[in-house]
Specification:
The structure holds two protein chains of two kinds. Chain A is of the alpha/beta class. Helices cover about 35% and strands about 25% of the residues of chain A. The chains are: A alpha/beta, B mainly alpha. Bound molecules: adenosine-5'-triphosphate and magnesium ion.
Chain lengths: ~250, ~325
């Protein structure tokens, strides 16, 4: 099978700061891959490269086998790479439906649509459907995001990310601001996304969450991808050792 | 579900309901204040409830209403437009001068030229506002404070510092036309603009983007909205509607005073803020602005009719702005 996304030899510098030195990474359809690593390991920088925010200084990215250049976040989205940002990027005073359709509104048919009138009903119906499919617990599609709990907001952002012919969903610490219940719901959502065949890259500092949802774990350390572990072949201690560097390629050989 | 979760859900529900009640109240609240003010003036002086006072109040209200429509669009984007009053004055003077210069083409044609030039001038100032804000990254407050000065200065330069007079009498006839005994021509135009603006804001993509950008500009950008372009359009629209207000004043008085519009932006901002818009952006409705403009206008004509110096209205507006913004901060300070 061909990987949905394959990144090889990715490096990124900010002036003299080396954020990424050498990252190899691949993800297959329907796979959840957790990217783990200490603070400053380069996780966010790496996924920003995948979502078109930064350009890599070295390395190449292939999408479904094809070499791509991601010129901007919009460009990455057009190629089916959707990112759920840590800050969720929702408009708090705007309702759930409008947030999910932000930038891709459905217009009324005919002349009214041409002069800019929205088809709110069609959008609401579709959002209800999408929320239902992912079993997301958002009660009203007319509620403004401001009124939602943290987990519900996460659900809105995730629903938005998976609804558009998506190739790949990237989530940077989606559970960082959530309590136990809400984190569990978010993990359930990730599993729902996976079951639709859409691969998910999931960044977290909570290692048990990685074991809960991920098929594979990739550890970044000091800007390098140091190991690639199948979740069912490894255990927490080993992962922690890779993250902290007490286990490394040099130590192994 | 555990007990704790149930409690959490319930608290959340309660918060939701109280939020909704608070929102409902704030709409209802301003409307009831308007009704209360009308009732108080009506009791003190029954003449307040007469047709002639209705005519003068609604006609007076057009200026605050139109500038308020401009300001509603801008404030929802989390901006502010201090130049609307100055644009109004500039548009009036430019329209008047163009009419005088083109009288040779016949009255009708010269009036059309005047109106078109007046509207274009307002849009141009709006364009400058939008470009400076988005390209030079100067805050809307400073930008429009600057263009307010520029527009006011130009108004005095063009008019030579005096009223522009000698305009065709037909202008005055149109401006003071009363339709169906109750509606001044300028009121009808304002009502049409208000209705269009309300529909535009609530039903179209343009309105949707206006709210989204004010609510979270960065998120809008990431969603592919061309935020800078949209903001430029909003400031141009603001300038356009402000200049329409200047032209309507010109039709009423048939002279263009360079002093027109001085401090009018204050009333407009007050109307919008009283109407429930948030200066932090993302919130506001045309209906709210209508109620706000109503309160401000009723205060003026009411004070006149009960023989209180109307300057007290200016004092009241200043206080009301501060109170309304304070209220807004308590309720929706962004986290
Ligand atoms: N825009 C930037 N300019 C300069 N240095 C940067 C920039 N972004 C990231 N870095 C640096 O690159 C390195 C990797 O940062 P990154 O944010 O990718 O780490 P992270 O793994 O996401 O960490 P965390 O777990 O704390 O989120 C850090 O040393 C950071 O200081
Ligand atoms: Mg990070």
């Amino acid at each position: 099978m061909e990987p949905t996304l394959q990144a090889t030899g990715i490096a990124k510098y900010f002036g003299s700061i080396r954020a990424l030195e050498h990252v190899d990474f691949e993800i297959y359809p329907g796979e959840v891959v957790a990217v783990l690593g200490d603070n400053g390991a380069g996780k966010s920088t790496f996924i920003k490269i995948l979502s078109g925010v930064y350009h890599p200084d070295q390395g190449e990215i292939r999408l479904n086998g094809e070499l791509v250049r991601l010129n901007s976040p919009m460009d990455a989205r057009k190629k089916g790479i959707e990112t759920v940002y840590q800050d969720l990027a929702l408009a708090p005073q705007v309702d759930v439906t409008s947030n999910i359709f932000l930038g891709r509104e459905m217009m009324r048919k005919g002349l009214l649509g041409k002069i800019g009138f929205l088809d709110r009903k069609a959008m609401r119906d579709q959002v209800k459907n999408m929320l239902g499919q992912l079993k997301a617990s958002v009660k009203s599609v007319n509620q403004v995001v401001d009124e939602l709990s943290g987990g519900q907001r996460q659900a809105v952002a995730i629903v938005r990310a998976v609804s558009w012919g998506t190739n790949l969903v990237i989530m940077d610490e989606p559970t960082a601001a959530l309590g136990v219940e809400e984190s569990a719901k978010t993990l359930e959502l990730i599993k729902e996304v996976k079951s639709k065949g859409i691969p998910v890259i999931f960044i977290t500092h909570t290692i048990p969450f990685a074991f809960d949802v991920a098929d594979r774990i990739v550890v970044l350390r000091l800007g390098k991808s140091v190991v690639n572990l199948m979740t069912h072949d490894t255990h927490m201690d080993e992962v922690v050792q890779w993250i902290t560097g007490s286990k490394s390629v040099e130590n192994n050989y | 579900m555990s007990n704790r979760a149930v409690t959490k859900e319930t608290t959340h529900q309660v918060n939701l309901t109280s939020n909704r009640i608070r929102k409902g109240l704030s709409n209802y609240w301003t409307l009831s204040i308007l009704v209360l003010i009308i009732a108080i003036f009506g009791v003190i002086e029954p003449r307040f409830l007469s047709r002639s006072n209705w005519l003068s109040t609604t006609t007076y209200m057009t200026e605050t209403m139109l500038l308020g429509i401009s300001e509603t669009f801008v404030i929802i984007t989390a901006g502010i437009d201090l130049s609307v009053g100055a644009i109004e004055g500039l548009a009036g003077v430019v329209a008047a001068l163009v009419i005088l210069k083109t009288l040779a083409f016949g009255t009708t044609l010269s009036l059309i030229f005047g109106v078109v030039f007046g509207l274009v001038v307002g849009m141009l100032v709006g364009l400058v506002n939008g470009l400076v804000i988005t390209k030079m990254k100067i805050t809307p407050f400073i930008t429009t404070l600057g263009t307010m000065g520029v527009a006011t200065g130009l108004t005095f330069i063009f008019s030579g510092g005096t009223d522009v007079v000698g305009l065709p009498a037909s202008l005055n006839v149109i401006g003071n036309l009363v339709v169906a005994s109750w509606f001044n021509f300028t009121v009808i135009i304002t009502m049409i603009v208000l209705a269009l603006a309300g529909i535009w804001l609530s039903k179209t993509r343009f309105g949707q983007y206006t709210y989204a950008i004010g609510s979270n500009a960065e998120a809008s950008r990431r969603a592919g909205i061309r935020v800078d372009n949209h903001l430029i359009k909003v400031y141009m629209l603001s300038g356009l509607i402000a200049s329409l207000s200047g032209i309507l004043l010109l039709t009423r008085f048939a002279t263009a005073s360079p002093l027109t519009g001085a401090n009018s932006e204050l009333n407009a901002i007050a109307a919008v803020v009283i109407g429930g818009a948030s200066l932090f952006g993302g919130r506001g409705t045309m209906f709210g602005t209508l109620v706000g403009a109503g309160i401000i206008s009723v205060l003026v004509t009411g004070l006149v009719i009960v023989n209180v110096q109307p300057y007290w209205q200016v004092v009241a507006i200043g206080v009301i702005i501060i109170l309304a913004v304070w209220f807004d901060q308590l309720n929706h300070r962004p986290s």
